[in-house]
């Protein structure tokens, strides 16, 4: 087996077997796809249900493959294919002769190959409906899916220690702090460049503290219905206050709660007002911490930075060389040889974010698979670094050109 995913014996279906009988194309129940090479795939056929076992793929019972219905929005129509947005993930399906599809249709389908019917001529999103109910609020609850560990966060130990003090400890010892008479910590602002691990650390803390995790971004919360965005925020905070422990997480809050002024949009002013009211409305028994991320803290409304709101801040700097070496080692896939040159790659990746460092492994895995290897070797690792480095350079040049266009 050349690669594996973070799940115990994931079930997949064979979609193609190469003519040489040395590789198979597979798809998972969630729609992800992959290519696996192994000495033990010669007896597999298209349509077989398989699972990952040490050394290769093994057949699984047919009844383990249970297709579930989905709802999505048509984004692109091609001659033989259609691109559909399912919960923020773009998927490609064969274009059916029936039903007739148009861009923007909300459709229902089954599994990976069947589009069954058009539910609406228009796209339906989280907040396109006028009423806010429990199902609407459940859309913002992130089940996390697995237990996260602090060992997964490579980088500054000081960041982890401070986050545990400000967030995990108040959630775990809420009653004890209340008995002492300490002022509760309501909001913590995570600042730093994109890709520095802000969202990851919030998930880890929620997992370790056993807290219900609500994840909210600006585009999700915006609604065409007057007052609905504020109502959703209010209901999320009410729902969170009913949990034993909860974290309400706002991703890139500067896009949602900008400085209020005479020129700012009325909807933005109302949302900031609702955030202020919700955070100020915490009762003593409420065990909720609000976390918000931003790389532009200066753009957040001043009122949200006052005591009792987001008055605590943790900055996520770009990792140092030793941090980078640790991130590379911790994020290495299981299918890698030992003794890879982490110090060398760490030295060559100054000013790289953790997300960019992790991307090296994706490129390295592709190089290993396409060359017929089951494990990532040093040459794949170095090649992965070179590929990501080239991508960063292209992005840098594109950004410089964009700035020149704006200044011109």
TrEMBL record:
Coiled coil: none annotated. Residues 387-408 are annotated as: Disordered. GO terms for molecular function: ATP binding; ATP hydrolysis activity. It comes from the Bacteria. Residues 184-320 form the AAA+ ATPase domain. Keywords: ATP-binding, Nucleotide-binding. PROSITE patterns: AAA (PS00674). Belongs to the AAA ATPase family. This is ATPase AAA. It comes from Streptomyces brasiliensis.
